[in-house]
Structures are given as C-alpha cells and as structure tokens.
C-alpha cells in the first residue's frame, strides 16, 4: 500500500500532515487523511458526523443566514453548509494557514468548491480566542445565526489543553453573546451524546439536544457513532 504525503508542517502540537492512501476495502479508492502528531484528525472515509453537524445545526433556521464554522479540516462541514441555500455568508475559522492553503490550492476534494464560492471566506485564527473577542475582526459586534464547531475530539478530549475553558458555562456564554436571538451553536463529538454536557448547554442557551449519528465502519463491519450537540439561544421560560 503506497501512502502519498501531500503536505507537511511542524507545529507546536506536532507535525501536521495531509496524505492520501488507497483503501483496499473500497477497491483502491484514494482516502484523504489529516494527522496532527500521532492523532488522526479527519479521514474522507468517515464524513457522516461532519456533514450532520451542518445539517442538524442549520435545520431549524431560515432566512438569509450568517454562519461560522470553527475548524476547516477536509472541509466537509463547510461544504455541506454551503449546500443550504439559506446560507448567505460562511466564515470558516482555522488555526493553521496551511489547511486553508490546501483548499485554496485544491489539494483536497472540497477545496475547489469552498475556494470558489463567493459566500465562503477563510480566517486564519484561533477559534477559541475569537469566541471571546468576536468572529468578525472588522466588526467584533457582528452577530451570527449559527456557529458550527469541529475542532476537539469531544467536549472533554482536547487537542490542546488550553481549549478546555471553552467547554464551560463561562466559555459558552462568550460564544452565545455572538449569536442572534434564536441562534444556534452546534458541536461535533467523536463519542456518543453525553447527557451531562447536554444539560450544561441547556443551562447556558435555554434549549439543547444531543444527536447520535451512526454510520458504517468497513473495518469492523459494525456501525460507528459520532454525536452532534445542538443548542439554541432562547429566552429562559421559552425552552423547547
């Protein structure tokens, strides 16, 4: 099996690698993978959870939507969001400029779609910092209809320990302040939905649900599961 390395960069969190390899279980189809250090961040073989993040996060919203995606990866969440015709603008926040470059240079399957869509713009920045300061640097008071996040593995398994503060009531209230009334925060997780985290989201936003997303795993011949948390900013006393 020949693995082709497309891009490589050393980062404070370890080597960031984009590679493609043939998958024997799929007749040799090329599978794109992103690694950071020894951890696999994303594979084009498993995209159901990332796509569900966009579908579930935007499902309840209508009108001309301003949306933020936190974490670019291989671009599946952003691409799925752009398939929603109500999305008028999509701001994708990514910490690594190289990942943005992969898309602008069309090195990944979703790259051409994202780079050519006038609704989509990339921002090289720390998502967690912007969640405190404002996602639109030119207009820090700008409000958004939805923020969709796929960065850490789970709410308590982080790529960087400094991210932990975001997943607390205080950190989430900072993000909530950037949502319009009835705005949505949605979060991908590599584990099944956790009731304790749903309850914390509900205490901050007013309404929250955890959705398990099941998909086929060709290696185990069983169903695998991710989850998507969807919290809606509603007035207390009007919880759904």
Radius of gyration: 17 Å
Q: Quick one: how many beta strands?
A: 11
Structural class: alpha/beta
Low-pLDDT residue intervals, each spanning 5 or more residues: none
Instruction: Please name the fourth-level CATH homologous superfamily.
Output: Vaccinia Virus protein VP39
Order of SSEs: EEEEHEHEHHEHEHEHEE
CATH class: Alpha Beta
The CA-CA distance between the termini, in Å, is: 51 Å
What portion of residues belong to β-strands? 35-45%
- The strand line-up of the biggest sheet is 7-6-5-8-9-11-10
| Helical segment count | 7
* Biggest sheet record: 7 strands, mixed
Helix content: 10-25%
CATH-derived architecture: 3-Layer(aba) Sandwich
Could you say what the CATH topology is called? Answer: Rossmann fold
**Oligomerization state:** single chain
Shape: globular
Number of domains as seen in the coordinates: 1
Salient structural properties:
Rossmann fold, 7 helices, four-stranded antiparallel β-sheet, about 240 residues, alpha/beta, 11 strands
